[in-house]
Specification:
ten-stranded antiparallel sheet; 2 helices; 2% helix; mainly beta; globular; seven-stranded antiparallel sheet; single chain
Length: 458
């Protein structure tokens, strides 16, 4: 991936909440756990609850190497480097791509000292110190990196899960270790595995990425192809969403999305991941990009005779993966100053018919409410972020609440198909369906609609 320069002053701190979870058949649990493990030949640390399992390899630049939800792994792990470590000194300017999830600085390039070359420096490939900040009801770990002289930065990540859901919280701290001011953006970089689960020599043809378009976008068509084919068949726009159906061609696309979320959906398994962060209105994002998707793959180049050719399709050199990237605004840091970028992930279930994301979950087939002879038929398909139950809130034409009805129990690891008929009065004009979590907290609406067919039976 490539990025150009942007410079502007902005001090900020993004603050969010968190929680998390793991395993195929969740059973009630009151705690999360942290323990040492061996992962693909590396010494690692595992953070887990009954829904999710997070595996860290501190030696590899503090990377989160794998996230599994209900037994389903999401992240790419480079087969070439499994069990290996190549120090920044040994890398000698190369970038060693182990895979997993990490943070790194923007803008990229070699224009000047305010650009990052992307090499395996201490920032990206140094050994990070691992420590446990809390465990039991909430588990939080810290990965503290070494100072990185080329950028003047030092990274620290605090990552946590709770014991009551699969939500994962990331708190990324950037410190200026120099004696002068520096300006950087920080980027969350998650590499998703695009190999076919049944045949790793093939790629997953049914993998999708989504981001809401900015209705006042600075980019043509709402997105900007920074590298690769401008008419890449992977890209489409529908219902206000940028949609990427992964194809094995190198490409990088930027979006100035203001919604603060992206979604990744594996159509073959219906496992999904939503990444969220807070968009700062009016802030200076690197070249306006708040979201970047990078597709690894071969690309068309010209040889010495000016003839086009396709670069390597060798999977060791060009493996199947895609980067989903959330950017912070640019921040100017005085000596010793820090700023924080907070983000959170929600694993869930969804098919590729995703329409939108709410605080409560993903929406596939939107909520519909039809009145038929005094009964209200509710339908829709969803993925939820928290375990609990759905509740319908009923309103009359004047907007007054006329009642509430408990619907079905739901779990994040199970796709939600709502098809339920409830008895109501004909005065119900509007319905909103909310997710109430297992502690009784209202997590927000999955949909709110006007009732159709209200004249029937009158």
């Amino acid at each position: 991936m490539k990025l150009t320069a942007v410079s502007c002053y902005l001090a900020f701190a993004l603050v969010v909440s968190s929680t998390s979870a793991q395993q195929s058949a969740p059973t009630p649990s009151s705690s999360c756990q942290i323990h040492a493990v061996v992962f693909d030949g590396w010494q690692a640390q595992e953070l887990a609850n009954e829904w999710v399992k997070l595996t860290f390899v501190p030696q590899l630049g503090g990377r989160l190497m794998q996230v599994s939800f209900n037994g389903h792994p999401y992240l790419f792990v480079n087969q070439v480097y499994k069990g290996k470590y190549i120090s920044p000194a040994e890398a000698a300017g190369r970038w060693i791509n182990y895979g997993g999830d990490k943070i790194w600085p923007l803008p990229e390039g070699n224009d000047d000292e305010q650009h990052w070359t992307g090499a395996s420096t201490p920032l990206d490939d140094g050994a990070y110190a691992f420590s446990i900040l809390s465990q039991n009801n909430r588990c939080t770990v810290r990965l503290e990196g070494p100072p990185d002289p080329p950028t003047g930065l030092q990274y620290t990540r605090e990552i946590s899960i709770g014991s009551d859901s699969p939500e994962i919280f990331f708190h990324a701290i950037t410190r200026n270790i120099t004696g002068h001011s520096i300006a950087w953006s920080v980027q969350s970089v998650s590499q998703y595995d695009l190999s076919d689960a049944s045949n790793p020599n093939h790629y997953n043809h049914d993998f999708w990425a989504y981001a809401p378009l900015n209705p006042r976008s600075s980019y043509l068509n709402g997105y900007h192809v920074r590298d690769g084919l401008a008419n890449d068949p992977s890209f489409s726009v529908r219902d206000g969403l940028f949609r990427l159906n992964w194809r094995y061609l190198e490409n990088e696309v930027w979006l100035d999305s203001t919604a603060g979320w992206i979604a990744l959906v594996d159509g073959a398994t219906h496992y999904a991941m939503v990444e969220k962060t807070r968009y700062i209105e009016g802030a200076d994002y690197p070249d306006k990009a708040s979201v970047i998707f990078y597709k690894n793959g071969p690309t068309v180049q010209l040889n010495a005779q000016g003839m086009p050719y396709l670069t390597s399709k060798n999977l060791e050199e060009t493996p199947y993966y895609m980067e989903a990237e959330l950017n912070s605004p640019m921040a100017v840091l005085a000596p010793g100053e820090t700023y924080a970028m907070d983000s959170y992930w929600f694993p869930s279930r969804m098919s590729p018919d995703l329409k939108t994301v709410t605080d409560a979950g993903l929406v596939g087939r939107p909520l519909a409410a039809k009145n038929s002879a005094g009964k209200l038929e509710l339908s829709g398909s969803f993925g939820v972020f928290f375990p609990g139950a759905l509740k319908a809130y009923l309103y009359d034409e004047g907007g007054a609440e006329t009642g509430e009805v408990s619907l079905q129990s739901v779990q994040p690891q199970d796709p939600v198909q709502l098809s339920q008929t409830i008895t109501t009065t004909k005065s119900v004009a509007r319905v909103s369906v909310h997710l109430i979590d297992s502690s009784g907290l209202d997590r927000g609406a999955l949909g709110e609609v006007v009732v159709t067919g209200r004249d029937e039976g009158r």
